[in-house]
Every structure is written in structure tokens, then in C-alpha cells.
């Protein structure tokens, strides 16, 4: 298998953490594929029509894309149980969706400041994206701490990768303010070897 990879992509980081946690890292070739919406990654053309990372090329089937699809596939391959059965499964999937929603909003903020010409940037739109992130972090802090503190699953990995990306690109906005329980949990979870091994360049 070949994983198309960008070192600063939080979606790629989710997959890399899963590979570390499930002992599958040696089974996957890592291929660099960096790009932007304005300049798609050349290696992905023909692999993923959306030209987004991560994408997982397989010998026995079509290339898989979207981090949630890839993570579910690799979890099933390893029979790791990061997407458990029963009631907890729906909590894990909801947590992963919430984490990816944080990432979607944060990435749009990054594109706004880095790719759009300065005279065309829309501060109110950027602030609206941050409002989504604030609500998501508050929900995690108020509703999800018991789950986050439970057995390892993909929801926890996704949330940690999302919060790590906020530290990487939007640290000045201070997601920890008012979310002390979440911040304390993140500090502990982020110290796992799998998280340390996948820290993107420039991450504080």
C-alpha cells in the first residue's frame, strides 16, 4: 500500500497515528504529495479526483480517500477495534465528525489568510469559522470528557489531531480558554508516542 502524505496535513496525521497505534506502519509506503487548492499535488492526479491527501493506493482495489474512509479501512485490516461495536461506535463516529469539522473550519481560515490576496480577505467570514471551532471545543469540554478519558478509539485520535492543528496554525486565538478540562486531557493524550512521532514541522 502507498499513502500519499503531507507532513502538515492534520487529516494525514490521523492516518499516521492509527498506523503507529496498530503496528501497520511498515506495511505502508509513504509518498510525498503536497499542494493547495490553487496548485493540486501532481502525484494525486489520477489517484484521487479531488487531489486531496490522504489517499491510500492499494494493489487489490481502487485508491481510498478521505481520512475517515482510510482510517476505517486500516482499523478493520488490523482488527484493532478503534471503531468499536455497539453504542460506543456511534459516539466514536460523532466525535470523529466533530473533530473533522474543527479541521474543516480551521483549514478554511488558513487558506483565507495564506492564499487569498490581502485586500480580498474577509475578517467576518474568518471569525465565523472560528465561532464553529469555539462551539465545538466547548461541546468537547462540557459533554465529551468521560468518553475522551475512556479506552483508546478513533474519536480521541481525531480530536487530538484537530487540537494540534489549532496549535500549529491558530494558536494565538487560544482554544484552551474556558476549556480547562479539555486542555488537560489533550496535554496527556498528546504525549503518547504515536502523537509525538507524527508532530508536524513547526508545531509548538
TrEMBL record:
InterPro entries: Glutathione-S-Trfase_C_sf, Glutathione_S-Trfase_N, GST_Omega/HSP26, Thioredoxin-like_sf. Residues 1-82 form the GST N-terminal domain. Gene3D superfamilies: 1.20.1050.10, Glutaredoxin. It comes from the Bacteria. Signal peptide: none annotated. This is Glutathione S-transferase.
